[in-house]
Write a structure and sequence with these properties.
mainly alpha; 7 helices; globular; membrane; transmembrane; DUF624 domain-containing protein; transmembrane helix
């Protein structure tokens, strides 16, 4: 019995790593990252429910999520660009109250990225990204512990990439699994 439990848990871990690689491949154009996260979360949900899934189902979910999800990805890239410009202006020292403005900008961007990840893991085929983002934004603020888990996941991806860039790909699967776990513990969002 204990051996079977270990095998099942290790299987989930291995599936998360594989899913992270799939997400990284699907997110190479960058604007498809939210859709890739949504497809990865769908794959992990199916795996945990012992349903059939695989690369074909992942790509099917990716295509469906990318129909409108690319706009979310474009908006996320825009938010990161605004943050970069904001921090560049602050470093130049031309903005009064620069450190405070920079801190607010970083926190706002982190909150927006957490909301995007939380929305992506709740996406289902036919789902509205606008409604998902609105709901995820509320949960991001109302559930600071869950949001902190997702932020720590970002730190794991960054640390993995710092250590060795290829390790960031499987770490994406772990972030997706963590965000999925955060969302599954809150039944009111469904």
């Amino acid at each position: 019995m204990a051996r079977r439990t270990f095998g099942e848990r290790f299987g989930v871990f291995a599936e998360c790593l594989l899913t992270g690689v799939w997400i990284a491949l699907a997110a190479l154009p960058l604007v498809t990252l939210p859709a890739a996260l949504a497809a990865g979360a769908g794959h992990l949900r199916r795996d945990l429910a012992h349903e059939r899934g695989g690369w074909r189902q992942f790509t099917s979910d990716l295509r469906a999520a990318a129909r409108r999800g690319w706009l979310v990805g474009l908006g996320s890239l825009g938010a990161l660009a605004v943050l970069w410009v904001d921090l560049t202006v602050i470093r130049a020292g031309v903005l009064p109250g620069g450190p405070f403005v920079g801190a607010v900008g970083v926190l706002a961007t982190l909150g927006a990225l957490v909301a995007v990840v939380r929305a992506a893991v709740c996406w289902r085929p036919g789902g509205s990204w606008r409604a998902l983002l609105a709901s995820a934004g509320r949960r991001t603020v109302r559930d600071p512990a869950g949001s902190l888990v997702v932020i720590c996941g970002f730190a794991v991806v960054a640390a993995s990439a710092w250590f060795s860039v290829p390790l960031a790909a499987p770490a994406l699967g772990m972030v997706t699994a963590a965000a999925l776990a955060v969302e599954r513990r809150q039944p009111q969002h469904r």
